[in-house]
């Protein structure tokens, strides 16, 4: 059996590398934006599309891609997504103007969605034992938990040490190697066939609804929450998603069988994740902006200043989360991690304009390590209760709420910070103090979002009963996709 085991752990390495690339690519551009704007002549409004052009297709296609992975094969979907992402990264690195770079970012989002949507579905079918699955999810979650922080560190190093195109070109050799290993290590699967869920109308409704919703959210800072643009697109998005749910309840071959929403843990974990990641955006982006715009840090300094958080998240998710979940249960681990994040955001909500790193920033950097407990526990709970035949769908749903949470965090916290800064400037406050006041408000709201996620974890999530596995198993007596999730 050693070769089988080697193949499975090699497959996990492939899945983790892809997860790292896709998560990292969402944050690596943050510290490189000033250099990109200078070299390619981006307008301030156009620069926001460096992030938006990636987030909209990524978040909008995840649910569809996850279900298609169940139908046509998760391995094929994973390889297609990697190929698109790698080609788009090369195009982005060679871009000579804003239009080409934005188009490349859009294609990167498409490729990321196709590959990421099926990753957890492949993982939970490869590792069926509770101990092995816990370890595998911890290793995979390490890449997601640390990816955002690593992205900011790597973005600063590459931008200052080489040039901004390398934040994209670095993906090309990684993508090529990943695809070569995936062809050998990932198990071939044929899927259930399109006839088992070829709901074209449902696919159009959910994809257009999610893309419109994410677009409306990411443009809030420009148009405002109560503008006709935001309210109109938001209402249309909700109508499309509502029509999708109604369609799934009546379709002969639904794209998303509604049985997946009967699991209390699946619904609760996805809701908690959306809230938690909305709050964690304040750390991933706003802390970097605070250090650069208020404290005067450069790109490399910012990346290195955030290194303790990246190391803490990575170490805890990789070495401690699986053992703690096995002993105390994923729910207890999640609650502990969320409490640490609440403490971190509470401290950040009190930072002064003349902060010193050791006193005001290092303590929350260390507390952010709680993210290394939160993300593996959420992944375990988010995949619990799903049938093996629905693993790709559950994976796509989990990743969708992740991206929606990040988009909401971008819109809500950035808008609040900018609004508060404007009020303070109008009142005659200095630039540094006004910016600090805006960021402090955003950190405080982030703490509130994390408290709400904590409340969901305490009141909604529960330890699956032993009988739940059999009841939620796939037809023919197959075990549930996450049979023994704690």
TrEMBL record:
InterPro entries: MFS, MFS_dom, MFS_trans_sf
Membrane topology: Multi-pass membrane protein
GO cellular component, as recorded: plasma membrane
Residue ranges, annotated region (Disordered): 467-486
Keywords, ordered alphabetically: Cell membrane, Membrane, Transmembrane, Transmembrane helix, Transport
CDD domains, sorted: MFS_MMR_MDR_like
Domain Major facilitator superfamily (MFS) profile: 11-465
Family matches, as Pfam families: MFS_1
Protein name as it appears in the record: Drug resistance transporter, EmrB/QacA subfamily
Organism: Nonomuraea wenchangensis
């Amino acid at each position: 059996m050693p070769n089988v085991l080697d193949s499975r752990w090699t497959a996990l390495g492939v899945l983790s590398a892809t997860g790292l690339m896709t998560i990292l690519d969402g944050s690596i551009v943050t510290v490189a934006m000033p250099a990109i704007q200078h070299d390619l002549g981006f307008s301030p409004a156009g620069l926001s599309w460096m992030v938006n052009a990636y987030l909209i297709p990524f978040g909008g296609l995840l649910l569809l891609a996850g279900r298609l992975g169940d139908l046509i094969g998760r391995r094929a979907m994973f390889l297609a997504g990697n190929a698109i992402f790698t080609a788009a990264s090369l195009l982005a690195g060679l871009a000579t103007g804003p239009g080409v770079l934005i188009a490349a970012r859009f294609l990167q989002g498409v490729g990321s969605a196709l590959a990421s949507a099926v990753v957890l579905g492949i993982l939970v079918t490869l590792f069926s034992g509770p101990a092995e699955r816990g370890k595998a999810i911890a290793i995979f979650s390490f890449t997601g938990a640390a990816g955002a922080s690593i992205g900011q560190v790597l973005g600063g190093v590459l931008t200052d040490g080489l040039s901004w195109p390398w934040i994209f070109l670095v993906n090309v050799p990684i993508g090529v190697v990943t695809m070569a290993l995936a062809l050998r290590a990932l198990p071939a699967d044929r899927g259930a066939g399109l006839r088992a869920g070829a709901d074209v109308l449902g696919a159009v409704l959910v994809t257009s609804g999610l893309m419109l919703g994410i677009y409306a959210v990411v443009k809030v800072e420009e148009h405002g929450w109560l503008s006709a643009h935001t309210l109109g697109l938001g209402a249309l998005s909700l109508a499309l998603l509502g029509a999708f749910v109604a369609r799934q309840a009546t379709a002969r071959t639904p794209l998303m069988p509604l049985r997946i929403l009967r699991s209390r843990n699946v619904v609760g974990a996805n809701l908690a994740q959306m809230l938690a990641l909305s709050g964690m955006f304040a750390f991933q982006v706003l802390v970097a902006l605070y250090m650069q715009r208020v404290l005067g840090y450069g790109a490399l300094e910012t990346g290195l200043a955030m290194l303790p958080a990246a190391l803490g998240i990575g170490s805890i998710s990789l070495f401690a989360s699986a053992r703690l979940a096995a002993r105390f249960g994923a729910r207890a681990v999640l609650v502990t991690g969320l409490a640490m994040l609440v403490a971190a955001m509470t401290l950040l909500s009190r930072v002064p304009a003349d902060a010193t790193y050791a006193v005001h920033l290092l303590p929350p950097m260390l507390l952010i390590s709680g993210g290394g407990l939160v993300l593996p526990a959420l992944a375990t709970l988010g995949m619990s209760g799903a049938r093996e035949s629905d693993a790709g769908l559950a994976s796509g749903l989990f990743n969708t709420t992740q991206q929606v949470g990040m988009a909401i965090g971008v819109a809500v916290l950035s808008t609040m910070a900018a609004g508060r800064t404007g009020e303070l400037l109008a009142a005659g406050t200095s630039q540094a103090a006004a910016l600090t006041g805006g960021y402090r408000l955003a950190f405080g709201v982030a703490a509130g979002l994390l408290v709400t996620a904590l409340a969901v974890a305490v009141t909604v999530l529960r330890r699956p009963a032993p009988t739940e596995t059999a009841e939620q198993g796939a037809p023919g007596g197959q075990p549930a996709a996450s049979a023994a999730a704690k």
